[in-house]
Specification:
- GO terms for molecular function: FMN binding; metal ion binding; phosphopantothenate--cysteine ligase activity; phosphopantothenoylcysteine decarboxylase activity.
- It catalyses: N-[(R)-4-phosphopantothenoyl]-L-cysteine + H(+) = (R)-4'-phosphopantetheine + CO2; (R)-4'-phosphopantothenate + L-cysteine + CTP = N-[(R)-4-phosphopantothenoyl]-L-cysteine + CMP + diphosphate + H(+).
- Its EC number is 4.1.1.36, 6.3.2.5.
- It is a single chain.
- Helices cover about 25% and strands about 30% of the residues.
- By secondary structure, it is an alpha/beta fold.
- Helix 1 crosses helix 5.
- The longest helix is centred in the last third of the chain and has 17 residues.
- It binds ligand PMT.
- Ligand PMT binds next to helix 1, helix 3 and strand 9.
């Protein structure tokens, strides 16, 4: 049986990907299946927390037992839902893959191809950083957990990028996972590091997404006791 160490905590978790509409039938999206965020919500409920799960678009997943599930589509809707629910949450976890950019304009009618006009060019506008805003508005004592979906490149490793993101976003804990070929998106398993604002770092060995969720909640429980 799992420990009931999260009893009395109100938790809000985001999962899945956002869709940013271009016209009535098209959108910009990403490959998030929601599996990681759902596992985090499910494990929290199993450990006694009162859980709200704000889900963007996901693969077909069973709703986690005992969890208040709300569906959203765009980054703007996810932002509204998270801001509302974070107001009385003890812990906020941002596992959703939020679009960094949305099409600057949403066409009212389906964009047609035409030999008379040039092909369209899509212009993008930056979306608000929901996690950074939640950190700015955090209640006293509230723990905020972010994710970093990274690929290693010439400027640094996945872990380097994760450390920089933790500092930039100002959250208390950050899960860094690798999203290159065969990485975290859509997979059943995940791996990475759990970084804390006080500098503590623990590796998360590859395993089912529920296992990463358990490591995350162990760290949150420890953080709340401090
Ligand atoms: O859904 P799965 O298929 O199971 O895959 C899981 C996952 C790879 C999506 C998940 O583990 C993960 O990494 N989620 C975060 C994805 C992401 O958007 O990472 P990022 O490095 O781009 O963003 C950093 C953090 O800021 C994240 O906590 C993100 O939720 C948040 N963010 C990002 C952009 C934005 N405009 N607002 C945000 O709040």
């Amino acid at each position: 049986a799992l420990p009931r160490d999260l009893e009395g905590l109100r938790v809000v978790v985001s999962a899945g990907g956002t869709r940013e509409p271009l016209d009535p039938v098209r959108y910009l999206g990403n490959r998030s299946s929601g599996k990681q965020g759902y596992a985090i919500a499910r494990v929290a409920a199993q450990r006694g927390a009162e859980v709200t799960l704000v889900a963007g678009h996901t693969a077909e997943l069973p709703p986690p037992a005992g969890v208040d599930l709300r569906h959203v589509s765009t980054a703007a809707q996810l932002r509204d839902a998270m801001q509302e629910r974070a107001q009385d949450a003890d812990v906020v976890v941002m596992a959703a893959a939020v679009a960094d950019f949305r099409p600057s304009a949403r066409a009212e009618f389906k964009i047609k191809k035409s030999d008379d006009v040039p092909d369209p060019v899509v212009t993008l506008t930056r979306n608000p950083d929901i996690l950074a805003e939640l950190v700015q508005k955090r209640r006293a004592g509230q723990a905020i957990v972010g994710f970093a979906a990274e690929t290693g490149d010439e400027r640094g490793s996945v872990l380097d990028h994760g450390r920089a993101k933790l500092a930039r976003k100002g959250c208390d804990l950050l899960v860094v996972n690798s999203v290159g070929e065969g990485g975290a998106f859509e997979a059943e398993d995940n791996a990475g590091w759990l970084l804390a604002a006080d500098g503590a770092e623990r590796p998360i060995p590859r395993g089912p997404k529920a296992q990463l969720a358990a490591t995350l909640w162990d760290a949150v429980a420890e953080f709340m006791r401090r």
